[in-house]
Amino acid sequence: MIHEPVSQLKGIGKETAENLMKIGIETIHDLIWTFPYRHEDFRLKDLTETPHNERVTIEARVESEPTVLFLGKNKSRLQFTALAGRHLIKVVFFNQNYLRQKISTGGIITVTGKWDRGRQVIVGSSVTFGPKTEQVDFEPVYSLKGNIQQKRFRKYMRQALDTVKEELPETLPNYLRESYQLVNIQEALEGVHFPLNADHAKQARRRFVYEELLQFQLRIQALRKANKENEKGISVRFDLEKLKAFITTLPYELTGAQKRVVNEICKDLLLPQRMNRLLQGDVGSGKTVVAAIGLYAAVTAGYQGALMAPTEILAEQHAENLHMWFDPIGVKIALLSGSTKTKARRELLAQLAAGEIDILIGTHALIQPDVEFKKLGFVITDEQHRFGVEQRRVLREKGENPDVLFMTATPIPRTLAITAFGEMDVSIIDELPAGRKEIETHWLKKEQLNSVLMRMTQELEAGRQAYVIAPLIEESDKLDVQNAVEAYEQLKAYFGTRFEIGLMHGRLHSDEKDAVMRAFSDGEIHVLVSTTVVEVGVNVPNATFMTIYDAERFGLAQLHQLRGRVGRGEHQSYCVLIADPKTDEGKERMMSMTETNDGFRLAEKDLELRGSGDFFGKRQSGLPEFKLADLVHDYRALETARQDAEKMLYDEAFWKDQEYEFLREDLTASGVMQGERID
Ligand code: ADP
Ligand code: MG
Prior knowledge:
21 strands; about 40% helix; DNA repair; ATP binding; DNA-binding; ATP-binding
């Protein structure tokens, strides 16, 4: 029955069938899988708590006879006052002047409509007479075409469900439904189309969201599994005892998140497939030490490791750290950058080729053709988005299928990471080391700049340093923005000889930039005025104060990256956003910054404000479309589904047991099993 045309249902003639066809409904199956795009909530609400522009149902007493204004052909506006609770409001109906006969002073009505909070008006869409009846609280609304009304559509739906409900097979394995307490398929369809209340609808949605995400994850994971099985890699058999001993020599205990990620990396190293992993960790979450442990693991297995950073100064910082950890245990570290002198470079390359250097750190100088490793087993790139795909590939090819780890401090919401980087495994450090002081963030208007400078002076007098960030380098006619050069001049005038001011921007040569950065790092410069070039991973723990001019011009992710330059030492740090945002969204961004220091939360917020299409800048995301699931709001379900899918695919039962039949079918239908790409 289920695959019969809808015209088999009572009341569906030729015309209706045609109208249904317009929204993609041919069979009864199509009909019951047409989900409402929203639910109308008819529960009574208090207007005091109803936000502006929200739809609401209220009970009210009519306080004035309705008046009707005719606005031209078939157009009219009916209006009366009513008392809803303690609110004396206006109720307006457009083009329903026939209601005039039914509404009279003193009568009780139940109105549903849109609440205009400012003008205290409800623009009504439906009205019933008398107090609200218990009956309907919650009604689905479908996206329909032609002359089919919601009510009639629901009748067809009722009939369809009643006809085929019994023959519907369960499509989710029982054990999954039990462990997540998901309703069965009959219940779920009932709850989607005929919810008794909000919870009923919610439970139905929960089930379908999970099912949808599970199917999606099965496809991605099946693809990844196939890739893994086809691509040869090396098994890095590290020495666990040595690794453990090394970890105990660190000056602190690893956070839970660091331990988890170290385990994920080590597991990948051991596997004979090539590691292709993305490590995300908020600024200051301690990715460097995790990288070091991974590199050391490779060394204990007789391999060499490489760590590539986007700037010299970052490479130097990494080298410094690694020397500190590795010199005492006799692991040989070397640094290769553009400024390595010819003779030293030649020696270094010889040692590298002879396998005398265990770990090579550097900038893209690492990928020059004459850089040859003896036995490269593990490659890590820091701030991976700074390198092109091509550069990463060249580095990888310096070994024979070495394992690869990409690190980034740009928090990409987990949801997007899992989907957009479908082919990579993703590790996340979502916990900061204990005892970190939260950066205090304030949002001020331009006219308050003086008080900001006073506060900055206090910090400087206490021996701390400060950053001032300005969006553009040179004055532009179009944009009334404070620019770095101008800000630099102003601050020089303001501080006179009391403090040393430095200037940094993208037009400087990289050695000039490095020189300025080094002077700041060494404390010779007290205030560093800069454009966003300081964004990447620079560590100056003594800098505790950051002022960002025209902060509304930056996205949340970037503001957060910038802010991460302070709060890296023992002292309390501050970030002041100077902004006069014009839009609500801009205001909300500033508020979000003052409310949280959590990069992932901000990334989620950013995603919410901008939508996933905009998140990556251009429309390259290739994100799938879902019927019910929403990547922003259902990310927990997505993660659960991901884990379940992974387990399933490696379980033999999945490939033969009856209860997986439908999931298997979906997988086959999606083409993944034939090795097609799904994006
Ligand atoms: P990022 O993830 O931004 O690269 P880093 O690796 O530079 O972060 O680490 C930031 C700071 O936190 C460093 O000073 C590092 O020594 C410190 N750190 C890292 N892990 C821990 C930990 N588990 N406990 C305490 N401090 C830590
Ligand atoms: Mg780092």
